[in-house]
Design goal:
The protein is α/β, with parallel strands linked by helices. The protein has helices at 13-24, 31-45, 54-59, 89-98, 102-123, 133-137, 151-164, 173-189, 211-226, and strands at residues 2-6, 27-30, 63-67, 73-77, 80-81, 126-130, 143-148, 202-205. The protein has one domain (2-221): Rossmann fold (3-Layer(aba) Sandwich). Its EC number is 2.7.4.25.
């Protein structure tokens, strides 16, 4: 079973997808981590997406996601673990830029599908989250969700994430709000694979929902899908 959760930054899709996968004994496919890994390569090489060196840099990148013996997701860039290094705001900004490059999206498409196939065969299911997992990456997914929340709530959540990260100084809430607003505009307006709700996705507004409520809502619909009931009929 392949389940996709799309939505804008800060909507709660990543944390929810990770929890749902764990509770269902599925694997969590963090597609954003793949783009952040590419972005990290650009940042470390001091290459911009429009640089003539970009194509050569991309061709030299080898990216994979693996789980260690403890079940923790590890992100690998050219065989080096970069799980923590890809979570800075600088890398996040670059990830939004590189994600708009056709060459990057084309390069990562088979990577995502290969990982999902490998994991679904070993565990029975994969939960993937991102911006276009239900529209482009896995258009034939068994179950699709689109999570959203107000700009204020998404900024608050992202600010809390920064505050909880001991490796990075948290920017002011207003700066986080502006960052998300910019990311929203870029993700929705880009020509290639813009952020949009899949036509066959179940929409979930998480603005006033607790984390537990988000997870339970999706789990309930997964259980309905397992027994052959149309999950969209309840929303």
């Amino acid at each position: 079973m392949i389940i996709t959760i799309d939505g804008p930054a800060g909507a709660g899709k990543s944390s929810t997808a990770r929890a749902v996968a764990e509770r269902q004994s599925f694997r969590y496919l963090d597609t954003g981590a793949l783009y952040r890994a590419v972005a990290l390569a650009f940042v470390e090489a001091e290459v911009t997406p429009t640089d003539e060196k970009a194509e050569a840099l991309l061709s030299d990148c080898t990216i994979d996601l693996q789980f260690d013996d403890a079940g923790t997701l590890r992100v690998l860039l050219n065989d080096a673990e970069v799980t923590d290094a890809i979570r800075t705001s600088e890398v996040g900004d670059m990830a939004s830029q590189v994600a708009a490059l056709p060459a990057v999206r084309e390069a990562l498409l088979p990577v995502q599908r290969q990982i999902a196939t490998r994991w679904s065969q070993s565990t029975g299911g994969v939960v993937a989250d991102g911006r276009d997992t239900g529209t482009v990456v896995f258009p034939q997914a068994d179950l699709k969700f689109f999570m959203d929340a107000s700009l204020e709530e998404r900024a608050r959540r992202r600010h809390e994430e920064y505050q909880s990260d001991p490796n990075e100084e948290a920017p002011p809430l207003e700066a986080v709000r502006d960052e998300i607003r910019r990311r929203d505009a870029h993700d929705r307006e880009r020509a290639l694979a813009p952020l949009r709700r899949p036509d066959d996705a179940v929409s979930i507004d998480t603005t006033s929902m607790t984390f537990e409520e988000q997870v339970e809502a999706i789990e309930a619909l997964i259980e309905r899908a397992k027994v052959g009931t149309d999950p969209s009929s309840s929303h």
